[in-house]
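Collaborator request, handled under Task 6.
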Amino acid sequence: MSAIRALPGPQEAFLSSPADIAIYGGAAGGGKSFALLLEPLRHIARKGFGAVIFRRNAKQVRNEGGLWDEAATLYAALGGRPRESQLEWIFPAGTRIGFAHLEHERSKYDWQGAQVPLIGFDELTHFSESQFFYMLSRNRSTCGVRPYVRATCNPDADSWVARLIDWWIDQRSGRPIAERAGRLRWLIRSGRDLIFDDDRERLKAAHADSQPKSLTFIPASVHDNPVLLAADPGYLANLNALDLVERERLLGGNWKVRPAGGHYFRRGYFPIVDAAPAEARRCRHWDLAATLASEGRDPDWTVGCRMARSADGRFFVEHIERFRGTPGQVEQAIRNTAQADGPAVTVSLPQDPGQAGKAQARAFARLLAGHVLRIAPEQGTKLARAAPFSAQCEAGNVALVRGTWNEALLTELESFPLGHDDQVDAAAGAFATLVDATQAAQGPIVGLY
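Structure tokens returned to the collaborator:
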């Protein structure tokens, strides 16, 4: 068996840190989960030792290629015996490495009375602050191994973890401060406040009733993982293909970037052309207003975006239909627009959850007889749905056909996710319909009537 060892650099620094609490990562592809799996192996010959590695929910533990799958190869090679029903590995000395979840806030209380020498958190930003600090009270040991915590994460500017590690982060650029990587600081928790000091004894003297814990943050990125880059050369390309915000987070390790106007779409991304190629697949996706035109001072718009995808993979926004109206007016406008577009243009609509959404789908099927109609539930947040479209726009693969609607669309795109987002939702929906021909042909299609 070949030697199992950490990669030189940040992964090695993480696995050799003396900190009570060490947090590793802050970008994608740095070998975070593998490092977390390696950590408990140093103690598997110590009788009475046990470790638990948490994900927020059980499904994440069992995901294809996730913690359980990764552990199978690694732990079996060292004599580990799996108990899949318990999500744990047992080693010859009787030591155990388990996997668990804290899916609900109250799940932390399932660990009352537990004594866990090593606690790991995979993707710490997915857990609440109270879950983390409660589990610190379960981080105890009588086996001779000093109790400690190891965690991994990706950046999240709005997470409590961002506040926890802000000393290691440049507050202007959002990037880690290289010379602070791996340096220890000491902290105590007083109520909801975290109090830090570079000197343990000084902190202890000022708070005699508290026991300081050492904390460090060690950043890493895909560039610190040559094994991954060699095994999967396309992974770096995948990160570069993300929208600006996600690319800054997952490739650049930026802890301060947030969605803001201009981060997802910029006017300069879009060439203006006179027409899309005649030979292209086409659809019009509708984003239906949630409020009537008479409600509120600035209600939502109903928007239909017609988009074409050429044989060479380029996308063309051909037309935007945008109006406010009553439900009856909306239905009539969708029907009239479908007739004007012709039967070669697929009509795509979002389906609301529940029985009401099914009834609405049947109503539109009757309304749009003679047209290919695709009705599917929307998946994920608005930002998540817009992200793949944004990445293609930034790459220069999306053009606008010249029209009077261009300026209104560009203005909304530039301001996204601020203000109205109806046109963005419609364009992202049209893009999603066209980008996967299989889904468009075999997904929840109401049919050809």
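The cover message to the collaborator said: "DSSP finds 16 helices and 18 strands in the chain. The domain at 10-251 is CATH 3.40.50.300 (Rossmann fold). Please let us know whether this matches your experimental observations."
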